[in-house]
């Protein structure tokens, strides 16, 4: 055995410690300055998860928020905030969505073909007002020399934004910052439909409530939804920003061109959940990045879970955006829960249902991921938000869906198509139907088997979705952008993109060739006919 003097041993220890910091410490771009322009509500919940990971790696973040923000704190240990005028300053409060829910539930009684278009109209109406507010907000920022000097003097290395609301897109483009999107939705629907080729023959348009195996009528409906999205983008959304683009950007700039210039699109889905479709080099899939292993529950909640015995527990949450269902709906749900042998944990805000059973625990907030990962959990009654669907997949819990607004109908359709969920209409829900659906989810093994199969596929990746997201954010910082991953197709005019100019040329040449061929044939036939006529006339003269 070799013994070293104290100084030599200390030097080796220092050397080994240095190696550990070199290989295990923060990356070379740690300490980068990142400007973050998020979207409030549930979108902020998953954006904050990324910010915490970036903070742990030494990055310095500045978040733009509204002084009236619903979720984004003004004081945080992981970022500095700047209050600016945002959508929340002028828009209706969060109770607006409760009113919108009642309207949607009423219109869900319409035939399927019609109701999806009506829902899109409601969203368009809401977005049109929202974009007018956001255009004024971004104009106020760009017109404020003190604010803009602060932005420029901060020397940000990157802007991380959610393009569902385009303030960050416009501001980051004006500042000429490398841009990364944390995205599922943009102005007219799912972001993937904007960045990647999306044939309407098998790629369902957002809000259509269609799958990827469409018959003729379904493809017709999908095409109409695609046309509607085009009209929405160019006639309802772009005009709101025309003054901003005329004053601050080169001619020909519109919102879509700024979005397509983003370096990386971190898309909050993957192909375990989403239908297969074409993609692009700068699209990175991070579906379920916010999911983590379950942690311990509060003592009282853990005791409630354990008291369920072999029957287990049903967890119900309808998200953070809608705070209340109609009274008759909650009474039917409570009455159905009361007849189950399982215990129920229900995130509930509002007047306590009179039909509530002793087996049901009402809470204003619940640790959703910890409950879904608990071994006693048997089913998840959910509204179909992206975050909740991925947590159900991550932990392998079958879903009974009650979609209410926006993308929730499409999200639950994807799980239903994979045999991992059953979906009900909240507007026509009765105690008997809800109880039957609950028993079906709890007692039919295929639902649990299918969701656990999806969970297995989701976990079988070379890198976790979170590590993938952080890698590509830091990749853009290190390389000051990722322009080499952007398709040249985005810079082409529409007629060149679809090769319509080439098609016109080929058709013209083909037409000219056919015309020339017909003309030549006519000339040849005419000459041949003349020769025959001349030859026949001479013969007759000689005979006579």
Automatic annotation (TrEMBL):
Q: What is this protein called?
A: UDP-glucuronosyltransferase
Q: Give the residue spans that cross the bilayer.
A: 494-521
Q: Which InterPro entries match?
A: UDP-glycosyltransferase, UDP_glucos_trans, UDP_glycos_trans_CS
Family assignment from sequence similarity:
Belongs to the UDP-glycosyltransferase family.
Q: Which UniProt keywords apply?
A: Glycosyltransferase, Membrane, Signal, Transferase, Transmembrane, Transmembrane helix
| One annotated Gene Ontology cellular component of this protein | membrane
Q: Which organism is it from?
A: Sander lucioperca
Keyword Manganese tagged:
no
Give the signal peptide range.
1-31
Q: Name one GO molecular function term.
A: UDP-glycosyltransferase activity
Highest taxon of the lineage: Eukaryota
Q: What is its main location?
A: membrane
**Subcellular location, record wording:** Membrane
